[in-house]
Amino acid sequence: MTNHPVLVSVDVLAAWMGLDRTDHSLPDKHTLEVRTRLLADQLPAQPEGFVAPTPVPELGRLVIWDVRWSATDPTQNHEAYRQGHIAGAVYVSMTSHLAGHGAPAAGRHPLPDPAKFTDAVRMLGLNDGDTVVIYDAVASAAAARAWWLLRYAGKKEVYVLDGGLDAWRNADLPLHAGEVLPRIGSAYLSWGKMPVVDTDQVPEFVHNHGILLDARALERYTGQHEPLDPVAGHIPSALSAPGADLTDATGRFLPAAQLRDYFARHGVQPESAVTAYCGSGVTASKTVLGLALAGFDGALYPGSWSAWSSSRDRPIATGEAPGDMPTDL
Fold this sequence. Notes:
Blueprint: E1 7-8, H1 10-16, H2 29-41, E2 62-66, H3 78-83, E3 90-91, H4 94-97, H5 114-123, E4 131-135, H6 143-152, E5 158-161, H7 164-170, H8 202-207, E6 211-214, H9 218-222, E7 239-240, H10 256-264, E8 274-277, H11 283-294, E9 299-300, H12 304-308
Parallel strand pairs: 1-5, 2-3, 2-4, 4-5, 6-7, 6-8, 8-9
Helix pairs in contact: 6-11, 10-11
């Protein structure tokens, strides 16, 4: 089981930035360190799975990424970021920074090439020793992909802002317009630090009693509606566990205890082998984060349904029943 924090609250991020609710001005560099420590020390203990307010990241070591993206809402884009973002946040592109490009068999959002991802995070201002906070405006479904990739690349001090941009706005905290151009960083990455399952490994994983969770909406799992991929349905033996179930109406994650109950209803126990997939490996990253918040280790199937369904030779199931993975695969 894992117990490394994965979320950061709005209050903690605001304190790390030196933002006082009674004074929204950003402090100058001479008073920032004192102010951040003072604000952080005043905060209460954080819920399970949230990073503690202290120690405060070193001055200049806090990196904020804005992943404004949605597969179904084109307004979640770079222009929306320019219109208003958290102070200092750098725009991160799902397609340019957080995904590679390949044949259909690799899925719609394959993992980026390690060297290209290293170049990308350096262009985005990342240095070794930085603390990274990531947010979006779609209940963390996009931000979780960046969180997962950085964890996969060996970075540990990486947190998703619980509730995202809406939580920041609702706390009456300021937004800045325009573009943030970071100073180029020099981070070194160490690929392969999070578990993955590829297309060829899925049948064996299922045959060995692994739990395969489908993070897409129920109507996509059943095959009733498929807006993105040419084939509808789900991987045989997969259980429907929509990523939207993990967050509440405000986009905040359910408490860790509730998530443990949710995953337990899907058969997940501390010793379970669990893999999450979705349409293209983005929303499933949110499921891996939710599993971590609940104290479970989970693997990601990056290619997901778009990779699995790219070949007519692979079996599919439809309807609400999981179905059975053929034994000859």
